[in-house]
Amino acid sequence: MTGAEKACAFLKEAGTYFLATAEGDQPRVRPFGTAHIFEGNLYIQTGLKKDVARQMLASPKVELCAFHDGKWIRIAAEAVADERIEAQESMLADYPSLRGRYQPGDGNNVVFRLQKATATIASFTAEPETWTF
Fold first, then answer.
1. Within-domain flag for 133
2. Residue 129 lies in a domain
3. Residue environment code for 98-125, b if the CB has 16+ CB neighbours within 10 A, otherwise e
4. Domain residue limits at 81
5. Are 90 and 36 in contact (CB under 8 A)?
6. Dihedrals phi, psi of 117, to nearest 5 degrees
7. Tens of pLDDT, residues 5-40
8. Residue 47 counted as domain residue
9. Do 75 and 64 contact (CB within 8 A), yes or no?
């Protein structure tokens, strides 16, 4: 399993993770729930009309954090919008409940590929595991 796949699996098991972005000099954090592998890369999804999308487009450095089963993951990455319909379709196939709000190519749906990423899974009882993707 690749680092991106390990990170995605952890995020999916956690169900909810927290995404941190920056707006000027102010950090912004909100709960998120999409994590998907497309073409071997970790992707997340949101709407272009949301502040979070505008923040990632203006300043692509993000951090994700989730806690599950006594462990936590932290992912520092660069979020890059992927405008391809295929990437959007793949995400929505994995999250069909989003189809009520988003459609591929609707002008609002956007998927972000996480690149230049460093992920660490840690706990109080084991040595951290870190990888890049």
1. no
2. no
3. beeebebeeeebbbbbbeebebebeeee
4. 3-123
5. yes
6. -100, 145
7. 999 999 999 999 999 999 999 999 999 999 999 999
8. yes
9. yes
DSSP 70: T
In the chain, how many domains are there? 1
* Predicted TM-score (pTM) of this structure: 0.96
Residues with Cβ within 8 Å of residue 121, at least 6 apart in sequence: 6, 10, 71, 72, 73, 128, 129
Instruction: Find the helix or strand (DSSP H, E) in which 104 lies.
Output: none
Q: Which of 91, 79, 87, 92 is nearest to 53 (CA)?
A: 79
> pLDDT tens for residues 79-102?
999 999 999 999 999 999 999 999
User: Which tens digits make up the pLDDT trace of 33-79?
Assistant: 999 999 999 999 999 999 999 999 999 999 999 999 999 999 999 99
Q: Is residue 77 part of a domain?
A: yes
CB count within 10 Å of CB 26 equals 8
Question: Which residue is associated with the tokens 């920056």?
Answer: 22
For tokens 């189809």, the residue is 99
Torsions phi, psi for 89 (to 5 deg): -60, -40
Q: Which amino acid is at 125?
A: T
Q: What is the CATH number of the domain that holds 82?
A: 2.30.110.10
